[in-house]
Design brief:
Chemotaxis protein chec; six-stranded antiparallel sheet
């Protein structure tokens, strides 16, 4: 089965419409734009925008389709504006995030503060994480995931219930 056929079969798997898998390495151009793989752009659909935020666990960026984030934001609307702690958390997340469209060539421009946070300068490793994807510097990605480790794969599969 060809790669595109495999991706097409996963576009709507049991109600899950965005399944980002695989790893790509792309360069930032002179204007610091990053090309998103065409397979992933097809999964995002309309509106053609991505929500980019710093990871809370690693020095990378988490990228969600805007429509996926819209579902999360609906949950946040239930938070009372009198809940000071919740409002502070929302403020922190929103101020640190970026909502970006892509151009006709499928490129996005992430704000400099986020690029700096993730140590992204010339090359970017795009890592699929099923419902989102992450942007890593090649050096940090090598430290995080140097090789395919069968024991690590087994532990990961078990921890997520596979």
């Amino acid at each position: 089965m060809e790669r595109k056929e495999a991706m097409m079969g996963m576009e709507n798997f049991e109600g899950i419409t965005n399944v980002f898998v695989d790893t790509y390495t792309h360069g930032l151009d002179a204007k610091k734009r990053l090309t998103i793989p065409s397979e992933w752009r097809a999964l995002v659909g309309a509106p053609e925008r991505l929500f980019v935020m710093p990871s809370t666990n690693d020095s990378c960026l988490c990228v969600y389709p805007a429509n996926t984030m819209a579902h999360q934001l609906k949950k946040l609307q239930e938070r009372s504006i009198t809940d000071v702690e919740a409002q502070d958390h929302l403020r922190t997340l929103a101020a640190s995030s970026n909502l970006v469209p892509w151009d006709a060539q499928g490129r996005i421009r992430v704000k400099d503060t986020l690029l700096d946070y993730a140590h992204l300068t010339t090359e970017v490793v795009l890592v699929g994480v099923f419902t989102r994807f992450e942007l890593w510097s090649p050096e940090l990605w090598k430290q995080k995931q140097p090789i395919i480790d069968q024991q690590k794969l087994g532990t990961a599969a078990q921890s997520v219930g596979l």
